[in-house]
Amino acid sequence: MSSGDGQQSQALTKPAFSEVQASAIVDSVFGLKVSKIQPLPSYDDQNFHVCISRTKDTTDGPNECVLKINNTESSKTPDLIEVQSHIMMFLRAAGFPTASVYRTKGDHITSLTSIDSGSEIKSYLVRLLTYLPGRPIAEIPISSQLLYEIGRLAAKLDKTLEHSEGQHAGQIGRKPEWRQGVHPGSQCSNQNFHHPQLSSLHRENFIWNLKNVPLLEKYLYALGQNRKREIVEQVIQLFKDEVMTKLSHFRECINHGDLNDHNILIESSKSACGDAVYQVSGILDFDDMSYGYYVFEVAITIMYMMIESKTPIQVGGHVLAGFESVIPLTPVERGALFLLVCSRFCQSLVLAAYSCHLYPENEEYLMITAKTGWRHLQQMFDMGQKAVEEIWFETAKSYEPGISM
């Protein structure tokens, strides 16, 4: 969902490569022949699902992969994209179901591809990632247990990266090491992530970082003058008054930043009694990764897990319980959770409306959150912080040992 660190503007150009052009990139940059290619949904980048032709020279290469083409703005931050790619590999080695990155023919993890748009030459960073199995969690009814596991997964991801250092990273481009049955975070628990460009994750003006909610004011015109805008304006003011003043009390970490219901893939299996049991099979899209706070990650996860839920207010308690089974929040962090969830709704809804002005042809994908998001935000606002917190915290408490659910 990333769009670079500066303010979103007309300068951002979403890639518009044809399938023929994308196939040519896979061939020329990565040395692989394409047998089939089709576009995948995306926010402001461009992704293709690629099937590779088998030859005697590529018997040990990928069968399926994803060609990711970054937009023009994020393509200007190659250091950031390299760090994000290294983190995906580090997490994969630690047991998380993240993608592996394939090297180019020149032994790099990214390549800058230029294309003549008619009026100017535009450059885009491209990567080739392993294709992860499963379907988006948005497509299934999410049980309370799965919500708990997703909260736990979010916390373990942040916890695994909490001692990261800005030194040289290990090798990248190895064959995937994650496999079904390996518990995320169970490997490499005593290893830290190192990279010389780790500081690139300090993205001060990144519009999707929850710390930058006040930057939404520049895009409110996209909503028009209505009740929706009034709610967003109130949330922004509350954020300034009640969250900005407490940031120094939050514990800092590296956030994935976009654990939404389309970036978490699941696969099903049958339980002993014949019921479907779901397991997370993929974590996608690390483009919004940045330095933030533990409480940001759980707030973002709660908000996105609410989107398709028929009982959205109840979602937060289950996700929170899972998260706190790994990283218990402090009282100050808990006290900010309600406003942070509301703030993430505002980020998603405002920026989707703004992006629709720029890319009306992509409206169906851009407005996924808006289909239910405004209703959920309104419900939270109408109920008020105290009532919502009571539901969340009581639900989370019910997971504690000795307390019956």
UniProtKB/TrEMBL annotation:
GO molecular function per UniProt: hydroxylysine kinase activity
SUPFAM superfamilies: Protein kinase-like (PK-like) (SSF56112)
Catalytic activity as recorded in UniProt: (5R)-5-hydroxy-L-lysine + GTP = (5R)-5-phosphooxy-L-lysine + GDP + H(+)
Main location: cytoplasm
InterPro entries xref list: Aminoglycoside_PTrfase (IPR002575), Kinase-like_dom_sf (IPR011009), Pseudomonas-type_ThrB (IPR050249)
EC number of the protein: 2.7.1.81
Enzyme class: transferase
Keyword line: Cytoplasm, Kinase, Transferase
Compartments, as annotated in UniProt: Cytoplasm
Residue ranges annotated for the Aminoglycoside phosphotransferase domain, each copy included: 58-311
One GO cellular component term: cytoplasm
The protein's role, per its UniProt record: Catalyzes the GTP-dependent phosphorylation of 5-hydroxy-L-lysine.
Family statement drawn from the similarity comment of this UniProt entry: Belongs to the aminoglycoside phosphotransferase family.
The protein's name: Hydroxylysine kinase
Lineage: Eukaryota, Metazoa, Chordata, Craniata, Vertebrata
Gene: HYKK
